[in-house]
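Deliverable D5.2: sample structural annotation.
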Amino acid sequence: MDQKARILLVEDDHNLSAVLQDYLELLGYHIVLATDGEQGLEFFKKGEFDLCILDVMLPRKDGFALAGDIRAINQQSPIIFLTALGQSESRINGFKIGCDDYITKPFSSEELALRIEAILKRCMNQNMRPNSDFFKLGTTRFDPANMVLITDSKEQKLTPKENALLKLLCMNKNNLLSRDRALTEIWGETDYFYGRSMDVFITRLRKYLKHEPDVNIQNVHGTGFKLEVRE
């Protein structure tokens, strides 16, 4: 890569964090390591990061709480959770907070690297799109290049996943977008938990557009979604 991506790694297992830091730095990433949630938040406030990798079970502030604090500062910063927890409720909670990916321990360093690369590539492609590339959703303007919904009264910043999903819906406006296609293009696989995550993001997008009477994201049961725009 031409310019090192800056990654905030928050992991209290010293052996695992040392292995991950060494491996990711060999791949060309710049890693800033924190060993608890409070320190992770302090580092995030002081620096700019392209990606955050957060362990869930952290001292002083757990990964979910830390992610919430990060989202309050920057809604667009991609987040990957690392956890030894296997319960579905834990994964769903992570996706509700707005994480971009979720990896359960034990995992291979190669798998993590591939997921990091996919997220960074997607964010880079979104940031390179021209500013003139926008969609009209009633009185709202959707600017995917800057990941924002714009109305006369306010701007609503979108997370990378919200942005990618809404753009895919807009590109298929008034046509069915299958669940499998959306999951494959945005999450890279059709895993059950990613499907639950997508449902959370659909709910958020509906909330952002609820003031638009001529715009509706319809759930086509068992099949997918349809962005209906009356013009």
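Annotation notes: The chain has two domains: 6-127, 135-229. The longest helix spans residues 109-127.
The annotation will be released with the project's public dataset once the embargo ends.
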